[in-house]
Amino acid sequence: MRSYKLILLLPVLLLAGCEKNVPVSSVTVIPSSIDSMEEGEVRYLTATVKPDKATDKSVVWKTSNEYVVTVTYDGKVTAVGLGNATVTAEAVNGGKTGTCDITVIPSQDPQPPEIKATSVTLNESELVLAKNDTFVLTAALEPSDTTDELKWSSSDTSVATIDNTGKVTALAGGHAVITASAGDVSAQASVSVEVPVKSFNVPQKSITLPLGKTYDAYVEYTPADATPHDVKVEWSIRYSSPIVFQLSKEGKITATAIGANVCDAVITYAEYDFSTRAYVQKQDECALEIVVVKQEDGDHEGFDNENWD
To answer: I want to staple 228 with a disulfide (CB 3.0 to 4.6 A). Which of 181, 186, 223, 269 is the partner?
Structure first.
């Protein structure tokens, strides 16, 4: 009797096993296509799985091009780039698939209106900087929500530069104009880079002039990018005898007699003092010996009847 009972139960067990493994016959994605999904837009897709009694109705979402659209486990689609892509829902049980073809187009959101700048105001209009110093200029734009971009520039980048944050860097003695512009309006700041004079001098300590010839004396200063202001040079003959040349106020020397004498240059000038933040008067001196001869290579007499060869 027991064997008969087992034989009768076997079909029932087999039938129960079949009911637990109902495969997926089809997957449909809704919607099946999106012709104009804007870049940045988010949509949700739905997967309909048949039959309704399928044992496992779960699906896995995939995208054919993750640079166009991305998709998450729940069918959330995000348009990330222009182009075409296909999103697929694949049934875990049976591998059946459904698809949605998507075309991503540029965003149609209206561009914000342009707001023109009406004025630019700088925190400083004049700067005096020492070489290698820095200073940050700030610009206030009106209206504050202008869409015009703030731009900086320097009239002489060998003297002073400025970066896009408004930081001014003094590079060498001289003058430059910094401009802040936004659209059609701008503001300027004058930058003076002051470098103190170390010394004044004449290029040569002694000049030999043939009788009747002229020479334009001049002075130089160091360093080369020093910035003396209001420079005045007064020339004078040091010794009253012998007078061997004529000397103009501008330093033009004309050889008039054989011999030697010295001309002196007194230089007065103004120089910026950073401790007092003001220009101060200074003075320097230098001397130039003038030797007058009969001809270019001839013998001549110097001071105290010394023979100058």
So the answer is: 269
